[in-house]
Amino acid sequence: MADTQIVNKLARGEEDRIRPCVGASHCMWKKVNCIHNPASGRETILPHVIERSIRPGRRIVVVGGGPGGLEAARVAAERGHKVNLLEAASKLGGQVLIAAKATWRKDLIGIIDWRVGELERLGVEVRLNTLAGPDDVAALKPDGVIIATGGVPDLSWIEGAEHCTSVWDALNETAPAKGDAIVFDGTGRHAAVSAALHLGERGRPVHYVTLDDSMALEMEYPSRVVYRKRFAENGVKCTVDQQLTKVEKRGNRLLATFRHELTGKTMQLEAAEVIVECGTEPVTDVFDGLKGSSVNGGITDNDALLSCKSQTARPIAPSAFELHRIGDAVTSRGIHSAIYDAYRLVLAM
Fold this sequence. Notes:
By secondary structure, the protein is of the alpha/beta class. The chain has helices at 6-11, 67-78, 96-99, 109-122, 134-138, 167-172, 190-200, 221-233, 285-291, 302-306, 335-347; strands at 59-63, 82-86, 125-127, 144-147, 151-153, 164-166, 181-185, 206-210, 237-239, 242-250, 253-260, 266-271, 273-277, 280-282, 322-325.
């Protein structure tokens, strides 16, 4: 499922080009899809083999080197376009670099490694440590621009946000361990449970709290079973149906206040650290700065996107470029969504 062309690649002696299964269990969820092969399970609308464009040689600039940006650059290059990928960090991977730090999800890095290898093969120009602004992008004289700048954690909605730690920082271990921890899950996806288990496996007392009626409600069931088992093995407590409302200092500790989703009653828990996961807010600076000079005003035709049809059924001024954004630069989602956005959008450019 990760690579339907595995036999053909083996026959050609291209073992190093085989797209790896990364054990994400995404294929065991609501639909039979692969986390990083968007064509699997969608063969009626998406091809597994990318054909060269009828208009090759267009200049495509991709801003952001996470999974979505890497996929956009890969597909554009396979289509025969000239591609520049600009990444602010010193390493490609985006949020996958953080996700892969969590024990049994370390193989997620294969999503990035495979695409990096493909970009090298295709001759894509990758610029690391490049915090690109609108003028930097425009200077490349693009025909198309894909914004894949992702998002960043936003905890500002919490009263006492200054006392909270993001899941990103918890997984990156940017600060020394602080003893017992509360991990609040506002998304029901992998990030919070990964952080809770990561800390629990390192011997820290952890209390995982979610606003849903079950842990990791938006996650594929097989992965939920793994987390439940490992939570039990590592003594991670679990409380459901609670919304975090406030975090305040109490001496050298933190007091977190929660509201029950059904009864409205409050609950308070105390810990040395309160870790919060509520998704990300899109980073849109470059996108906003380019909208006015783009031919489409940065608007993506969602009907065309859903049916994998071209976004270019409009007159294009000689000096104008198409502008689109994908993945978490649109709204907080996940790895598969970013790659799926990139594949179907760029395939039709």
